[in-house]
Input
Amino acid sequence: MKIRTKARVMDVDDVRRAITRIAHEILERNGGVDALAVVGIQTRGAFLARRIADEIQGIEGVAVPVGILDITLYRDDLQTIADQPVVNESAIPFDIQGKVLILVDDVLYTGRTVRAALDEIIDFGRPKSVQLAVVVDRGHRELPIRADYVGKNVPTSDSETVAVCIAEKDGADEVLIQTVEMS
Output
């Protein structure tokens, strides 16, 4: 099995602009940072959440709380992904009661990851609302979930994957459409 890059749809500047635009849209929609908090879904969503929070702080001069979620144990396909799934840390070091949570992930696809994240968030308390921010929305939803903030809509086929590469994890910022070729 070989992964082949079909196209680069975002480069480092595109990713940076998308994060900046998402931060501005969040502030505009919510009228500032009052009761705002950002929560990223492990792994890349956690890095993106930190970047969005940093951008908001740069604009408003106010730090917003940041948390991370590992949705592994909340997945509806847990039995199919691994016999011994790797569970990372979920850390929301603030009270979410009454907060407007910005849930951040890299790619929105079927909606199942977001559903799992919403289930986990409720275990932490009851936020005022939850808004979703993603770098890429690739379509193919299986659940009635939509993003409030999207860096780029990228139409794909089911045979393609979207790889959001983040410098902190992958060494570079870019978004790739990839295909899997059977050898």
Q: What stands out?
A: The two ends are 5 Å apart (CA to CA). The beta strands are 2-10, 36-41, 66-69, 100-108, 129-137, 149-153, 160-165, 174-181. The longest strand covers residues 2-10. Residues 13-156 form a domain with the Rossmann fold fold (CATH 3.40.50.2020).
